[in-house]
Amino acid sequence: MSVFNEFVHEYDLWYERPFGKAAYELELECIKKLTSIPENSLEVGVGTGRFASRLGVKYGLDPSVEMLRIAKERGILTVAGVGEEMPFKDGSFETLLIVVSMCFVQKPAKVILESHRVLKPTGKLLIGLVLSESPWAEFYRKKAEKGHPIYKHAKFYSRRELECFLHKGGFRIKSVACTLFEEPQDEKPVGNREIAEGFKNTSGFTCILAEKI
User: Fold this and answer.
1) CB contact at 8 A, 125 and 98
2) Residue 1: pLDDT above 60?
3) Which of 49, 86, 151, 154 counts the most CB atoms within 10 A of its CB?
């Protein structure tokens, strides 16, 4: 998506600002609650490598060459491409991550199917996202209505839709965790650092760990 080439520096700096930095650290904690990440892992929609570099993910896939340039500087082995048509052989990875990227893919169901294909038989898929039921999704939708250059391209999916994508794609949900339980905002550091098990409609970030069936 060309918008990520154009706004790559603004996107990456978000993680250094008070809210972005606090939310990022909390999201990392939430992910780590669910699973440890083996080295032979891939992040789809790796962006500038913020999550992959902190989680020990070796490979990163993204359509934005500008974002991949920064991810490479963070030590990620980068590949240009999209989640709907991953340029990897069947059974290439032990774990696959899609963190804060699902709302920007063109065909989410196809991405899940491709994830199944490139994972090993015992592979795991971890998705981190804002569900459409969340008040945070409405917060970002309002930003999109006001012309936000990135959020205007986002589409948020419901719990039911995600469960359907995963079931049809050959996955079974193993565990779920969520966090960001406070009034949506994007300026002040996060105050509530709770991480809860299961789906919660009030959370701003949900992590779903699924395994191949």
Assistant:
1) yes
2) no
3) 49
CA-nearest of 168, 171, 161 to 206 is 161
Q: What does each C-alpha distance from 187 to 17, 184, 204, 210 come to in angstroms?
A: 8, 10, 15, 32
Instruction: Give one DSSP letter per residue of 41-67, joined into a string.
Output: EEEET-TTSHHHHHHT--EEEES-HHH
Rounded average pLDDT over 2-7: 76
Query: Which of 50-87 are b and which e, b meaning 16 or more Cβ less than 10 Å from the residue's Cβ?
Result: bbbbbbebbbbbbbbebbbebbeeeebebeeebbeebe
Tell me the C-alpha distance between 31 and 141, whole Å: 24
Predicted TM-score (pTM) of the model is 0.95
Q: At residue 198, what are phi and psi to the nearest 5 degrees?
A: 80, 180
How do residues 76-123 score in pLDDT, each as one tens digit? Answer: 999 999 999 999 999 999 999 999 999 999 999 999 999 999 999 999
Query: Mean pLDDT throughout 189-206?
Result: 96
